[in-house]
Specification:
single chain, alpha/beta, Alpha-Beta Plaits, Rossmann fold, 2 domains, eight-stranded mixed sheet, four-stranded antiparallel sheet, 9 helices, 15 strands, elongated
Length: 294
């Protein structure tokens, strides 16, 4: 079915009130976007980031009366709406549109990340079949891609154990297993991520007992051969003692989700226990790898 979109230009001081007004006028969803190329790459914990120049878009049924809906939104807002316009949204199967643009990714050596709905480019390669669902991690973002590159370079493994901290879609842990790892323990704060990891493990014929997943509070005490953590710089620095405790002496560390400007801060948090390799960088993002001292 077709939809109508109401676009409203505003700033951070009015964004929340306008969002409420559009919902009160019958919007089925409201999105907020940056209008001035002001990226907020790592908000503080618990913070909802808003931009100085924000575009708010409400999605409405195409059958509505746009004039009446604008008036309802203005009453709920308590004033005339700032600069705004209505637009007809083309009717598409958005899931298929996204699927069409997600293609296999070669991560190095013979490791490929392949959408589950596309034939593998090289059936003889190590092919990880992925349907990320609601969880982060498709291999397209530099942070994930650099971790996958590093894993491909380290493999094939010979039975090493791993922790995938912040497992998301399970992509890093599954790659480790397909490259020869014996066991991955996954953990994530998002229950949806745990479900996505299980679904993707099933898709790759990985037994669930080889990739058990937990909320952080339930994660068992262990020491893995390799620690993988692709989250954000702030949490990585705070988690340094915990991630160190989960890594055996002589074990390897792979951290990502870090901006180049944050690398030294994160490395400083781990230097009491780890010796770092040269920094790997793609665009403004870095991947940090290290070995734990014995």
């Amino acid at each position: 079915m077709p939809w109508l979109q109401l676009h409203v230009n505003t700033d951070r001081t009015q964004a929340e009130s306008l969002e409420d007004a559009l919902l009160a006028a019958g919007a089925v969803s409201v999105t907020l976007q940056d209008r001035a190329d002001q990226p907020i790459l790592e908000p503080a914990l618990g913070e909802t980031p808003l931009w100085d120049d924000t575009l708010i878009t409400g999605l409405f049924d195409a059958e509505i009366d746009t004039k009446a809906t604008t008036e309802i939104a203005a009453r709920a807002f308590g004033a005339e709406l700032p600069s705004h316009r209505w637009e007809l949204l083309e009717d598409k199967d958005w899931e298929r549109e996204w699927m069409k643009n997600y293609q296999p990714i070669h991560c190095g050596h013979d490791l490929w990340i392949c959408p589950s709905w596309i034939d593998t480019p090289d059936p003889k390669a190590t092919n990880l079949m992925l349907d990320p669902g609601l969880a982060f991690g498709t291999g397209t973002h530099p942070t994930t891609f650099m971790c996958l590159q590093w894993l491909a370079e380290q493999g094939p493994f010979s039975g090493e154990t791993f922790v995938d901290y912040g497992c998301g879609s399970g992509i890093l842990g599954m790659a480790a297993l397909l490259l020869g790892g014996s066991q991955v323990t996954g953990t994530d704060i998002d229950p949806q991520a745990l479900l996505a990891t299980h679904d993707n493990a099933d898709r790759n014929q990985i037994p669930r007992d080889k990739f058990p997943v937990y909320l952080p509070a339930d994660c068992p005490e262990l020491q893995a051969d390799v620690m993988l953590a692709n989250i954000l710089a702030g949490p990585l620095a705070e988690l340094a003692p915990s991630l160190n405790a989960l890594t055996r002496p002589g074990g390897k560390l792979c951290l990502s989700g870090i901006l180049a400007t944050q690398a030294e801060t994160v490395m400083d948090a781990y230097r009491p226990w780890f010796d770092f390799d040269p920094i790997r960088q793609q665009d403004e993002w870095v991947c940090l790898t290290a070995v734990k001292r014995t």
